[in-house]
Amino acid sequence: MYYNANTILFLNGKYIKATDATTDLYSQTLHYGYGVFEGIRSYETSNGAKIFKAVEHFERLKKSCELVNIPFNYDTDELIQISYNVLKKNNMGDAYIRPLVYCSPNMQLQAPKEVYLMICAWEWGKYLGDSLLNLCISSYQRPNPNSVKVEAKVTGHYINSILATSEAKVRGFDEALMLDMNGNIAEGPGANFFCEKDGVLYTPPLGHILPGITRETVINICRELEIPLVEKYFTPEELEGIDSAFMCGTAAEIIGINTIDARPMKKKWKESLGATIQEVYKNIVLEKSYADIII
Ligand code: PMP
To answer: Does the pTM of the predicted model rise above 0.70?
Structure first.
């Protein structure tokens, strides 16, 4: 469960019990999906609980607010400190941290004058990593960038993700892979996508996807390991004959793909570029020294 009788969260300047927290049923966020959030992980490292890419996540939270005109005045250092306080008050190390910026009561279709901030956390076990996903190409496209701000992590956008994941599960798959409005591969409902062919990694460019912080980390790992990486659009047909693929995201971390629309990958996951990146990622989040990284 996400909370119990002892859980403490941060709400508008105060640390209170989750069971004592209330919200207003007239909030614009509840009615119209007009709010902004983040998904952040902390890992219990040999140096204590460490929030991975905290600055990047809170900068994206602020950027998301800006993009959809939600006024938000917290600064990043303050938000990071609050998050560590929440972890400490709940005695958590390996956790998922959820900041949510939501709006005051307002039934109009205009930006709110007042917004609220909630930051909560729940326990989340360390890296699992070994399972592989069976994906299907979703019948749901990612939202059109001419309709919404796709690069913002807005609550209402996740209806699209819920529809896609639910459809995938009903069809007997683990997860969906979604196309953009032009029929190119875009991303998963909550993770970015990479595939490998002939020693090169490919991933869709920014524009029709959420600019994932894990995606950026993967790109940096590729640079570090001199793995050739190309950001380009490609169609589902071009996935035929790929060697391997993976999804990546704060929650998913790096997760290998077994099949796409029941078609298997050419390489075994353990032999793929993704498996190497997965190993490096694991060491980075746990703050292990580079010498500990076995590639
Ligand atoms: N795409 C979507 C639609 C997502 O919801 C997420 C998760 N935030 C990602 C990609 C991955 O982003 P990140 O690596 O920043 O968690």
So the answer is: yes
